[in-house]
Amino acid sequence: MRNMICTLLVVLFAAGCSTVTTSVGDNAQDNAVLQQGSMIVKAIIDENFRKFSEGANEVITENSDADSFLASCKQLQETYGKAGTFRYLGELQTPLLVNQLFAVRFSKKGADGKTVEHEQLLQLIFGRENNGSYKLLGMRFM
């Protein structure tokens, strides 16, 4: 979990409500991992560490992880603005991994005082575990 939060922090320095629109296959496993990815994005928008951990398929062990997560969310808001909605763009074809792309809409006050809205890409990378579930391996805003 610490590595995932650290990755989120690094990405943030480098670089409401939600909707999901997608066309996925009939495979129930595809739909499950899509719901898992959507849960993670919504948890980031809502700054909900428990939901983030659940979606990432992580066990919560320390409060410091929650503090790091909230610090990452704060940095995200300072960098891009307030996250509001998101949409699923699709999945990149990669061997052994599920590589999802989401567009997250942010709003921020411009220098002239007007609200500026823009989207950033969010990539989530999942690996399949031996029991068939998926675990979040990495993520980044682009």
Describe this structure in words.
There is one protein chain. The protein is of the alpha+beta class and 142 residues long. It is built from 4 helices and 4 strands; from the N terminus they run H-H-H-H-E-E-E-E. It has helices spanning 2-14, 28-46, 49-56, 63-80, and strands at 82-92, 97-109, 115-128, 134-141. Strands 1-2-3-4 form a 4-stranded antiparallel sheet. A hairpin with a 4-residue loop joins strand 1 and strand 2. Helix 1 runs parallel beside helix 4. The chain is globular, with a radius of gyration of 15 Å. The two termini are 21 Å apart. 27% of the residues are buried.
Overview features:
4 helices
Which strands sit side by side, in order, in the main sheet? 1-2-3-4
- Report on the biggest sheet: 4 strands, antiparallel
Low-confidence stretches: 6-26
Write down the overall geometry.
Answer: globular
